[in-house]
Design brief:
This protein is α/β, with parallel strands linked by helices. The protein folds into 2 domains: 192 residues, inorganic pyrophosphatase (n-terminal core) (Alpha-Beta Complex); 119 residues, Diaminopimelate Epimerase, Chain A, domain 1, CATH 3.10.310. The chain is built from 12 helices and 11 strands.
Length: 322
């Protein structure tokens, strides 16, 4: 179990708190942020929830899903409470610029690998946790907080996000235990329907096109996938909506690793998602390009042309032990 004593001590002496997660928030970032805010408010704290970008579209059903602001707050809080962010910089340039010079206390809940750089007064960083939302659950237990239905859904949403609905290797005993506990508070079937059955029809049309252009290497163990801004526009889809493409491709029997390159700025700025199975480790690949993540799910930003990006990862794929 994690030690929350220092965290709780700091919280006791904090009245105004700014809560924030990482850029391009994923369900774990969103769910853990919403749950923490709700719990802090029930403790009588004044909470400002910041997000650098839009939350995932399928989290719109969560209570208080619209409570986050995209404006960097202009006041100094007693405390910055950061969630799911491997480095303080990952909170976003503008937010980090403010937080990094602030004398306010700073704490972190996270489950990404990172070096302790002394930025936080206290942190609970557990690389073994399936999701940051699982750490939020531990903390709620630690302080004896009884979760509301909304908070339980937030936490379930976070765990589902990082474990693919309890399907990935990250779905450990604790994740299964927490979700089974939460199923006494939430309507589990209804929750699953809201989590999984939300795809716009165009999603399948674009996915079909993306599959047509996907490339396979090394007997189908390596897959290279690309999506363009033009496609997003043509199919009227947003970036977060097409995020699951890469996970779907991993479901192919032969696949050991998937590289998905996504156009961010026409022809020159790209986001890579890397997904693998079993022992194939994505972290060193992402780190090579200045990114990071988890063993089976990582990402990085790439500057250059599509062909340069494609070549760079295929070269790496040739050397992998698969
Ligand atoms: Mn996470």
């Amino acid at each position: 179990m994690s030690d929350f004593s220092r965290i709780n001590e700091i919280l006791e002496n904090s009245k105004t708190i700014i809560v924030a997660g990482h850029v391009n928030p994923d369900p774990d970032c969103m769910g853990s942020s919403l749950a923490v805010c709700s719990i802090l408010r029930s403790m009588g704290k004044e909470v400002y929830l910041y997000r650098s970008d839009k939350y995932p579209y399928n989290g719109a059903f969560l209570e208080n899903s619209d409570s986050a602001s995209e404006t960097v707050p202009d006041f100094e809080p007693d405390l910055y409470f950061i969630l799911d962010s491997a480095t303080p910089q990952r909170t976003g340039d503008e937010f980090f610029a403010k937080m990094s010079v602030s004398k306010s206390k700073k704490i972190l809940f996270d489950h990404h690998w990172h070096q302790d750089n002394g930025f936080y007064e206290a942190e609970v960083s557990d690389e073994g946790a399936s999701a940051t939302a699982a750490i939020v659950y531990r903390w709620a237990k630690d302080i004896g907080h009884e979760l509301t239905k909304g908070e339980a859904e937030d936490i379930c949403f976070g765990i589902f996000g990082d474990t693919g609905g309890l399907r990935y290797a990250s779905a450990d005993k604790e994740a299964l235990f927490i979700v089974s506990e939460l199923s006494e508070i939430i309507n589990y079937g209804e929750f699953c329907s809201k989590f999984f059955e939300t795809l716009p029809e165009n999603w399948f049309a674009m996915f079909a096109e993306v599959i047509q252009s996907m490339e396979k290497f090394r007997d189908g163990k390596v897959v290279f996938l690309k999506t363009s801004l033009e496609q997003l526009e043509r199919f009227r889809l947003s970036i977060d909506e097409i995020d699951p493409f890469v996970e779907e491709i991993r479901r192919i029997n032969s696949v050991r690793i998937v590289f998905r390159i996504r156009e961010v700025e026409p022809g020159k700025l790209w986001k890579f998602s890397v997904r693998s199975k079993g022992d194939v480790n994505c972290i060193p690949i992402a780190q090579k390009f200045g990114g990071g993540g988890h063993k089976n799910a990582a990402g990085f930003t790439f500057h250059g042309t599509l062909e340069e990006g494609r070549k760079a990862v295929i070269e790496i794929a040739e050397t992998l032990e698969l």
